[in-house]
Amino acid sequence: MKFTHATLPQRAVFAAGESPAAVAAEVEALGGSKVMLIASDREKELADPIAKQIPVVLRHEEVVMHVPVQVAERARRAAVDAGADILVSVGGGSTTGLAKAVALTTGLPIVAVPTTYAGSEATNVWGLTEGETKTTGVDDKVLPASVVYDAGLLTTLPGEMTVASGLNAMAHCVDSMWGPRADPIDRALAQEGIRALATGLPAVADDWTGVEGIEQTLYGAYLAAVAFASAGSGMHHKICHVLGGMFNLPHAQTHAVVLPYVLAFNAPHAPEAEARIAQAFGSRKADAGLAALREVLDAPRALRDYGMPEDGIAKALEPIIMAIPDNNPAPVTDANLTALLHAAWAGDPIN
Q1: Paired sense of beta strands 110-114 and 86-91, if any
Q2: HSE on the CB side for 155, CA within 13 Å?
Q3: How many CA atoms are closer than 13 Å to the CA of 2, on its beta-carbon side?
Q4: Whole-structure pTM value
Q5: DSSP 155
Q6: How do residues 33-65 score in pLDDT, each as one tens digit?
Q7: Mind giving me the DSSP string for 173-228?
């Protein structure tokens, strides 16, 4: 073995039903006395009990998918004007992403409280969208200092969103098997993440109020994000970031659609990763294991269902080619990438 693995410094607190007290404890431990609480109006009922336990100086509700630059600028100014010394985000990936955008320029620490399985809370990756272009980067300033996972906050997440968000987490695991910096530790974490997600997601899809299934899925999503933060963004995420920013596609659903096509594309060229993924699913083949799970979950199937135009395939081709890491397991060409994107656009069966 010859590799270098970086473990990111972060506290992760699993506290089902106890997020207000847990968040208050984390804010106090970080020395926060002026909290900017970032939560959209959709998350108000979940954020209110937390707000009562912490010293809030500003509640910020403008949260927009893919974090447009102008939205980030307004949040940054609001944080400075309020004199905030700590950020608390309550919400999904877009909410966490906005908190990261504020932290990127202010250096304020973040306590993240996820209400989906997005995983952004456990990475040092930020993303901003300007026009049709989504730009991502890595900076330790945006890594939340603490994450509070409260399964009780996800009992109201609708079943369809649970499935899409959970498969987004699954995509973190799969990309971590062959990301640009993937190492044996990342693959071990990702394999356990796949196992946990494959166990938890069917339970949550069957009963999205069941705390045990949610906890197992949150555990898998956390492992997925930790592995992904180390391994780096691979082919799958590069495709989804380009498409999401270019066509304003819903983040989780885009990942859920694209995942099986990228897995089928790369797995034959990465036998060790393929074997790990298959074992995590308890299946003979990785793609068969994922297909069986998607069938149980009635997963999203086609990008066209979420507003992507067919002529967008040609438009997205060059930016995606430029973004895919050079060490992707399978060689990428204009022809095979076009075929992959068209299949994902149409929801074609995977051969």
Answers
A1: parallel
A2: 12
A3: 0
A4: 0.89
A5: T
A6: 999 999 999 999 999 999 999 999 999 999 998
A7: HHHHTTSTT--HHHHHHHHHHHHHHHHHHHHHHH-TT-HHHHHHHHHHHHHHHHHH
